[in-house]
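## retry 2 of 3
previous attempt timed out at serialization; input unchanged, resubmitting
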Amino acid sequence: MWIAILIVLLAVLAAVLFKIVSSGRAASAASPIQPESISTRAQASAVPFGTEETEAVFTECYRLAFGVPQLGSQVPADHAPVLDAVNKSLDESVYQREYFPRRPMLLPKLLQTLNDSESSRDELVRVLMEDPTLAGSVLQRSNSAYYRTSPEPVESLDRAVFLLGTDGLRSLAAAAILQPVFRMPRGSFENFPDFTWEQAERTAIAAEVNARTIGDAEPIVAQLLGSLGMLANIVLLRLTMDKYREFPALTPRADVLVEAIRSQRACVASLIAQAWKMSDLSIVAFTEQQQRISPTHMSSLGRSVYFGELSGALAMLTSRGYRTKKQAFEIIAGQGSDLETAKAMWLAATSAAQS
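## retry succeeded, writing output
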């Protein structure tokens, strides 16, 4: 009898355990881990797009570019309509040459020649000779202390091409072609174009070095995008100053111009890239900046643009004594770059304006 009772109790216990296990499996099947929750956790642990330190770096660059002792913390209410006018006119302004420069005619042909492994040095020299300014820049660069190997000056374009090599020519050609579009007529904030061009040179070479180091982004494209990001600053300065003419009672303010640049530069850079018929990857790289995605989640090209801009800005400050080398490394590494890449970018950016 006791044995029978024990058998019944064991059967009941087994049924209860089976029910518990089954219900647990059903709950697991009905409530799997959602991709959103994984993404949320990853985002929470990612390096932020901007920190107090990085924002302070760019703010200091803007202050120096505009030549003002300080920038206001917010835009005055009576100047807000100027920003609104700028924001509303961005899409249509891309078709107006006074704001958005046309793509340099020689750029596609030169890039094709540089990227063609079958192109001879004679072919490259012929392309360079089509633009006397560019040819002069090649000779000037080849006579710099970095490239020149003998006491005699380099006077032959063929010799200059040989000394610079493909990488040196890519870097120089892109810079020489883009420099004219950074120029502005004299007027308010006269220091801004020259400061921005120097920052563009430093940014572009740092972006190129980042792409070459990580190995899965095209260096010359990264360099061009670094320049275009800074060109957006010039475009927005032109556009905002023009919108101020619609409000004659207002005097242009640096803090208003900075806010226009901060809020719209990535968008404008993307518009320039689209107008110049650059690749979809290039557009995505600027979209990532516009959306302020964590650099750890950006595409390879997006990261090159991001770290190029950060390294370029830090190089501007270190060259003027506003940051130390150690501080620069710490900020770049703090945003997710390994130390060796950070050193390579910083070294390239700090030496860019010296050749």
